[in-house]
Design goal:
By secondary structure, the chain is an alpha/beta fold. The protein contains 10 helices and 8 strands.
Length: 250
């Protein structure tokens, strides 16, 4: 299975570089404003227009920014504003707090393709995940908020990530993993086989706030493609993956 590459960008120039460099998804965010820092709608619209100028471009997602789960009206307002810019998916961070249940219900009924992003720093609430899986979202992601605390693999054990991937795929939705991922995480990602993996730090010169680096992007694209070209063992069914994860955790 080919893992698709999602690259987060903050400008028209970065978006075009990522698209031409082989990214399968273009994700619009402002890394200087937090894990899911949002760009101004005018900037999002300009990037969308530039990417749509050439036919057959990659799908585009955009974040709404880091908003507390208690601010439901603001979350919905931002979703509407970002969706109006013409993106394919709107990403919304989901924190493991009681108010998140109402946020998921509102997002499912907002009339736009929303991808909930479960923030994994304090773990992923299984009840919220099950709720989201029953609401028909086109995709779900796991990501981290504090990029200095380590990668997604440092914060969640592999059995939990394997179970997450299996559960989302079993519901027919896309599943993505992100969170300070690096080139060295490709073997672990191949083992989990999400539909896509999100990168920012790994393709930047310096930290994630630096400029997109074409050489780093090319190395990451090559790493993902090489994994597929070398051939992989058949992936267990989602149910088998889930059973294995549950058994290993007992």
């Amino acid at each position: 299975m080919t893992i698709k590459l999602l690259v987060s960008v903050r400008s028209v120039a970065e978006a075009l570089l990522a698209a031409r460099g082989g990214a399968d998804f273009i994700d619009l965010k402002e890394p200087g404003q937090g894990a899911l820092g949002g760009l101004p709608p005018a900037t999002i619209a300009a990037i969308v227009a530039a990417l749509r100028a050439a036919p057959g471009g990659p799908p585009i997602s955009a974040t709404i920014g880091d908003v507390a789960m208690s601010e439901l009206a603001e979350i919905v307002r931002r979703v509407q504003a970002v969706a109006a810019c013409g993106v394919d998916y709107v990403k919304v961070g989901i924190e493991p707090v009681p108010a998140a249940a109402g946020v998921l219900e509102a997002l499912a009924g907002c009339g736009h393709p929303v991808v909930p992003v479960f923030i994994a720093d304090r773990g992923i609430d299984g009840r919220l995940l099950q709720q989201a899986l029953g609401l028909g979202f086109p995709g779900l992601m796991a990501d981290t908020a504090d990029k200095r605390a380590g990668s997604l693999f440092d914060l969640l054990p592999e059995p939990a990530l394997r179970a997450l991937v299996a559960q989302v795929r079993e519901c027919g939705a896309m599943v993505g993993l992100a969170g300070a991922l690096r080139l060295g995480h490709l073997p672990a990602l191949r083992a989990l086989a999400p539909d896509f993996a999100g990168f920012r730090s790994a393709v930047c010169a310096g930290d994630r706030g630096g400029a997109l680096d074409p050489a780093r992007l090319a190395a990451l694209v090559h790493g993902l493609r090489s994994a597929t070209d070398q051939g992989e063992e058949p992936r267990p069914s989602p149910i088998s993956q889930l059973r294995t994860a549950v058994t290993s955790s007992l």
